[in-house]
Design brief:
- The protein is an all-alpha fold.
- It is about 45% helix and about 0% strand.
- It is globular.
- GO terms for molecular function: transmembrane receptor protein tyrosine kinase activity.
């Protein structure tokens, strides 16, 4: 979502750059990248607090990932709903 927003703002001219992991052309390369603890970088239009939530959602081990209710609670806490 944020990567597409960056593209809409003309911050990226590369046609493929708005796809996650566009530089890795196979499932095996993507899996290797993730197993090394690497994750997508923070999009320019994404706030720091939301990127932290994203990183927690992308934890390699499923049990370490945020649950839907946790995500909802953190977003509500941050935007004061």
């Amino acid at each position: 979502m944020f990567t597409l927003l960056d593209k809409e703002l003309n911050e990226s001219d590369d046609e493929m750059s708005h796809f996650p992991y566009h530089q890795y052309m196979s499932k095996e390369k993507i899996l290797s990248y993730l197993q090394q603890g690497k994750r997508l970088g923070q999009p320019k239009s994404c706030s720091d607090w939301l990127y932290e939530i994203m990183l927690q959602c992308w934890a390699f081990n499923i049990q370490d990932r945020l649950k839907c209710q946790d995500i909802e609670d953190r977003i509500k806490e941050k935007i004061c709903l």
